[in-house]
Amino acid sequence: MRTRQILCPTDFSETASHALKYAIEMANLYHVGLRLVHVIDQPVGLENYQILTVTPEELAKSMEDNAAEQMHALLAELNSELSVESVIRHGVASEQILKEAESSEAGMIVIASHGRTGLSHFLATNVAEAVANRAKCPVLVVK
To answer: Which has the closest alpha carbon to 88: 64, 111, 61, 112?
Structure first.
């Protein structure tokens, strides 16, 4: 863990930004690089049953362009001496984060928890919980 980079998934939320601060602190402590990953998921909901005015390819390209812009803005804000890499993946968030952790041989994953409880916990997919339960490396879940 102490020689391999830290993987930090982000959805560009305030909670993910908070987890990123921990990831940076851990990377500085161990003098390792930081790898940011964002996963573009297939949108799910009632709006998908409406008639699309764009093709699925155009929608995917638009989502990827938007994610790339947000990732560039995030990287510009870091002002860090760390070696920072960024990756954008497509698919189910927990699966893609785990695949990225394995392929990059991450020493640790630092991930935000959105802190859902009760009914909302059961209705919403809990990415942090899925990653923590299935990861082969240590996982720090930040609230």
So the answer is: 64
* CA triple 18-36-12, angle to 5 deg: 50
Does any domain span residue 74? yes
Has residue 1 been placed in a domain? no
Instruction: Establish if 52 belongs to a structural domain.
Output: yes
> Which tokens hold the place of 1?
């863990």
pTM over 0.85: no
CATH number at residue 136: 3.40.50.620
The residue whose two tokens read 């916990």 is: 121
Q: What is the mean pLDDT of residues 122-142?
A: 86
Mean pLDDT over 87-114 rounds to 95
Query: Can you give the residue range of the structural domain that contains 76?
Result: 6-142
Domain count, the chain: 1
Helices 127-134 and 93-103 pack at an angle, to 10 degrees, of 40
In 3D space, the residue among 12, 74, 60, 59 whose CA is nearest the CA of residue 38 turns out to be: 12
Q: pLDDT per residue over 32-88, tens digit each?
A: 999 999 999 875 544 555 555 677 778 788 889 999 999 989 888 887 788 999 999
How buried is residue 38: exposed, middle or buried, by Cβ count under 10 Å (0-12/13-18/19+)?
buried
